Each structure stands twice: as C-alpha cells, then as structure tokens.
Amino acid sequence: MGIVQIAAVIVILLLLVKPVGTYLYHVFSNEPSRTDRIFGGFERGIFKLSGLKNREGMTWKGYAISFLGTNIVLVAFSYLFLRLQGALPMNPNGTGGMEQSLTFNTVISFMTNTNLQHYSGETGLSYFSQMAVITMMMFTSAASGFSVAVAFVRGITGRDTVGNFFEDFVKSITRIFLPLALLVTLVLVALQVPQTLQPSLHVTTLEGGSQQIAIGPVASLESIKHLGTNGGGFFGANSAHPFENPSPLTNVIEILSMWTLPASLPYMYGLFAKNKRQGWMIFSAMMTLFVLLLGLNYYAETAGNPAINAMGIDASQGSMEGKEVRFGIAQSSLFTAVTTAATTGSVNNMHDTLTPLGSITPLSLMMLNNVFGGKGVGLVNMLMYAILGVFLCGLMVGRTPEFLGRKIEAREMKLIAIAILIHPLIILAPTAAAFLTELGKGSISNPGFHGMTQVLYEFTSSAANNGSGFEGLADNTTFWNVLTGIVMLLGRYVSIIAMLAVAGSMIRKKPVPETIGTFRTDNGLFTGILIGTVLIIGALTFLPVVVLGPVAEYLTLR
Amino acid sequence: MKNTSSYILSIVRLSAIFIILCGVVYPLASTAIAQVLMPSQANGSLLKNSAGQVIGSELIGQNFTNPALFHGRVSSIDYKAEASGSNNYGPSNTDMLKRTSDFIAQWKLDNPQVPVNQLPIDLVTNSGSGLDPDISPASAIVQVPRISSLTGLSSDKLEQLIQSHTEGRELGLFGEERVNVLKLNKALFELSAK
C-alpha cells in the first residue's frame, strides 16, 4: 500500500508537468497570450508605481545587478522589521525584537530561499514578521530564483537577450505565485489549516489540565512555503505540526505544491529550446535519480531501527521515532525525498531521527542539488551538468563540444567549474572548521557518528539553500548563525552569477549547423551520460564524508 | 549619476510594493476570506464538551496520564502546544534507547494482560511534532484490557468505540489508519457517564 500511494502521487505529478510547463512558457516567452488580459493591467499598475517605464532586454550583467539590487533592498527592509518587531503592530503575543546575529542569519536564510530557521516561530516572531518578512520573502526569493532560471534558459537557447529582470520578477509573482498561493491557501483552510489573527488559545483539557495552543495566519504561509520551495515553517515542528499539515490529504497537496513547478521547468525549457524531447530527457534523468534515492529511504525507514526492533515490540510499522501516525512511512518518506530534491526544506518528520541509511537520501539529494531543485536553480544546475557531460564526451572523441548548436569553449567551462566546485567547498570546509573548534563541536546533541552527520547536514542544507536540518543541533549561536549565513550567501549568489555569465557568453555565439557528426543531446544515450556525470562527480566529492557519518553509524547499529 | 539614483529608487519602490502586496494584502485577504467562508477550520477546529466549553483542538494531541483513559504517543514536550517538536534523538542515541526501554518496562507493569510483542512501535516512540493527535488502531486495542479492568466497561464495548473512531486512509489511498485520542477519550467519558 505504501508503494501504491507513492506511485499515485508521482502519476499526478506526471499529468501536471505538461500543462504547467506550457503555462510557464507562455508567461516567460513574452509573446502575447490570453493571460495578458487578466494580469496585464495589474502589472502595468505595478510598473507605473515603481517608475520602471522601459523594460527592454538586459545584458547578463544588467540582469545580475538588478537581481542583486532587489535582493539587497528587500534584505534591508526585513532586517529592520525583525529588529523592531517588538514596537511594530500585529504582535498580540508581545514578542520582542530579534537578536543581531540571529536576524542576520534569518534575513539571509529567507532571501536566499533557504529558510534555515535558527529561531522558533511560536516564540521568536510577531504575526507582522511572519507576514511582512517571512511570507513576503517566500514570494520574492522564489520569484528571484525563477527569473534567473528563465534568463539562463533564454541565454543558452539563443533568444535575443536574457530578458528583463523586473519583468520576469513581477510576472513570476502576479501570474504564478500569488494566484496559486491564494488557491492553495483556501484549499488548506478547508482541510483545517488555521488562518487567524487571534493570539494563542488557552483551554482546559479533557483531563482538567491547561493547554496553551499557538495559532495564527498559518495557511497563507503554508501555501507559499511550498509553492516557492521555501520551507520555513510557521511552527518549530514545521509540516509535522498538525496545524501546518493536519491530514494525509494536505500532505499530498503540500508535496505537489513544492514539486510541480520545479518538475515542469524542464518541459518549459524544452519549449524554449524548440526540442521537447530534450526537456523530457532532462526530466527523466532527474526522475531516475529521484526514484533511486527515494527507494533507499523508503526501504531503510520500513526496515526500522535495529536497536529498537530488538526490544521485542511490534515494529511492523517501521521507524516511527520522529514521525506522525497519520503519515506513516510512505507519506513521510516521499515528503523527505521531495523536500530535499526540490530544495524546499520543510519537514513532516524529523530528519535527525531518520535511520542511518534513510538519512543518506536527503543528504545526497542536497549534495547533488540538481534533481528537480527549487525555484529554477535545479534546472540550471542540471543544464550545467549537461554541458559538462557534452564537454567530456567531446574530449573523448576529439571534437569541439556543442550544446544546442553552440560551441562550448574555455570561458564557459571555467565558469561551470567554479559553479560546480563552490558547492562541495562550502560544505566540506566549514564542516571541517566546525569540528576543529569548541564553538562548533559544543552544539552537537547526538553522540558518535550521528554527530558528524548533524554538522554535515547543517552545512549541506545551507549550501543547497534547502533549509531543513538535523534539528537537534543547538544552532542558534553566533558561530552557527554567522557561518551558515555566509555559506547560504555563497551557495546562492556565486553559482547564480556564474550561470548568468555562461548565459551571457552563449547568447553571443553564432549557431553552428547540425551535421551527421553532431553529438545528439535528446536521446537515451545522453540521459545515461547525464546521470553518469552527476553520479560520478557527486560520489567522488562526497562519498568519503558520507562514509564517516551515516554509513559508520549504520555499521555500528546493525 | 541621476540615472543610477532613479534606478535605485525604482528598486526601493518595487520592493515596497511587494512588501505590501505579498506581506500584508495577501495574508490579510486570505484571513478575511477564510474567516468568512470557513470560520471553524480557520480558528483551529476547536472541540467542545457537552457543556459547550472548549476542551482543545481536535488536531492537537493532549497529555493523558489517567490510566483509565487512552494514552497518546510519547511527547518530550508533554503536549505543551505553545511550542512544538521533539528531542531529535538519532537512531544510535543512548538517551533515546534508554527512554524507549524504560517506557516498555513501565508499560509491562501497567498492562500485564498484554504480551509485549503486541505493543505497536508508534506508542513507544516520540512523534515529530510532539503534538501528534493520533495513534494507530492497534495501539488503541492494546490499551483495552487495562481500561476495561479500571472502568468496568466491557472489552467489546471499548473495541466498538475504537472501531467507530478509526479514520481510514484518505480517498481510500493516502496516509495510514488512525484513531484520534482526544475524540476517543471524549467518547469514553460520555460512555462512562451513562
């Protein structure tokens, strides 16, 4: 039954990919379409109010500067709001201003679409901050990432320019995120997710005790949290909290909310490239890697924790520590795989409590960082590996490599090498640094090899802009706030700028005509090469550290 | 220079528009629509007793210590819903293994009629949220002998009660079968009062 429910969700996703991908293409191709009539006027109003009159295509540098500038301004506003929240309106529970290093970490975390949370939502944020900082950044960071991905696709498919950042940014919100978020919010409320501005409830329980229940405008955050692959929860327990995710049905909706947009991007890319097969090839490479890793987690969690199974109880449900009864293994396992593949980072079960082999799944998906991926970055990373794969094949047969009819040369390969290497660098170097200092080691809550995994997971999640955590780690200290803040910044902006530069350089190249000797990138052979490239580079980089953490823990528990 | 400053001003204006649109208008409009159309769900699905007093939310588990009532899952926060979460114990954590074996030992003392190999794992483990309102139907069944001997209600009656409170998989497919402990105990209260 577990496998059937997982398969059912994947089938629904497959059915959504084509219509959603087509819609995304219509939004970003900037050709006149029916949706203009609905949203056009509204968008013109926004452009008029902000004074952005001419929106012609930009150079890649202009695009990058506009993207960075908008992010910086949003960070500045949010920093002020969080520091001053005690004095701002809509604060019925009397929450005070946020501490400096925690604010630094929080604004970076949400602007980079990471949503690593070193605060706890119930006690750390006012309702105003939940709305005007957290919810707002969930829209704007997702829109920023989406825009960059579209610009990259325009670049390598040879459009006239990479596009106009402001136009892409505004349209992402008005035509994709806002309408979808409103719809999903209302569906979630109908399925019992709260949406209120009342303060916490105080009740006398059935047994006569007292219970204080934190509540708030949950649904409106929950929907964009998943649609924008953000992942920061309203409550500390994130989507495991019954108010955020009350039933298996809301669980399926949340999974599809975070999965559909990233999974539809390869199809949109196929339309831009005028080669739908190519889009499907990228999609199937992603899906193959996804199913392999999901299978590992499902198997390991169903088998359970040998140390507990040995206690003689009925452990047929699998490893239930840190999981909710309503989800069981299947819905928890699928959520874990999707949230780390799509770099959302919300959790409906506690990843710290995963069995050792089960924890390899979220770690690997974040280390690869290109299996679907969040808000467009996953597609960009996968295309980067595709170009690398073409380059490797070209070297083997001694031809100048081409991708989509454009020559791949030294400049592009240098930029791609930077983007590929920065990811392991900012995971492994700070992990080592944390183990060299008391400040780092002191925060580990689980002894032995599991402690190694806790630290590794924290930095992997930061670098991949995922935001889930092995939450036992006591990470709200200046050391962790500053270090993970820097990792998140580098993880987001270095690769994005490098990839925009690649787009800018590809767009200037003259297309070379396709001949019989051209290496095709839209067949099964290429999909195999792509999966191979991803796995070889991923395994060479990360296997040693994975052996030190989860694999070692597995061997000691067996 | 004038161009740069007007460019920056445009970015600031655009940011302000989206802070208002996404950060204020969107959540407030969602709240208004939700409160008008679905007030019960939007306010936390509150559960009332026969006297009309709110006794909690049907979605949020409660701490039950009375041995004559059904117990929920282990919660490191004792179902204190002003916060949420768990201890995040890894699978090899000795504190977690000790907590689990202590729990099983105590459970054997409290439920001598039930062999321990029937004790389901969900009852022994800490939920992710610390607020899990549900247990598996099997976890309710194993508590029947204890509750029956303490309340005098017959096992058949209690098992019927569990059966009528078992929620199936959603759409017959998604999730797991489960029993909401608060609703079950509320019904148990009403049954005992008769």
From TrEMBL, chain A:
UniProt cross-references to Pfam families, sorted A to Z: KdpA
Transmembrane residue ranges: 6-28, 62-82, 127-153, 173-193, 252-272, 279-300, 376-395, 415-436, 479-503, 524-548
Main localisation: membrane
Coiled coil regions in record: none
Keywords: Cell membrane, Ion transport, Membrane, Potassium, Potassium transport, Transmembrane, Transmembrane helix, Transport
UniProt-annotated location(s): Cell membrane
Superkingdom as given in the UniProt entry: Bacteria
Membrane topology qualifier: Multi-pass membrane protein
Function: Part of the high-affinity ATP-driven potassium transport (or Kdp) system, which catalyzes the hydrolysis of ATP coupled with the electrogenic transport of potassium into the cytoplasm. This subunit binds the extracellular potassium ions and delivers the ions to the membrane domain of KdpB through an intramembrane tunnel.
Family: Belongs to the KdpA family.
Name of the protein in its database record: Potassium-transporting ATPase potassium-binding subunit
Organism: Paenibacillus helianthi
TrEMBL record, chain B:
Keywords: ATP-binding, Cell membrane, Ion transport, Membrane, Nucleotide-binding, Potassium, Potassium transport, Transmembrane, Transmembrane helix, Transport
Transmembrane segments: 7-29
Keyword presence, Membrane: yes
Subcellular location: Cell membrane
A Pfam family hit: KdpC
Chief place where the protein resides: membrane
Domain of life: Bacteria
Sequence similarity: Belongs to the KdpC family.
Subunit structure: The system is composed of three essential subunits: KdpA, KdpB and KdpC.
Entry protein name: Potassium-transporting ATPase KdpC subunit
Source organism of the structure: Paenibacillus helianthi
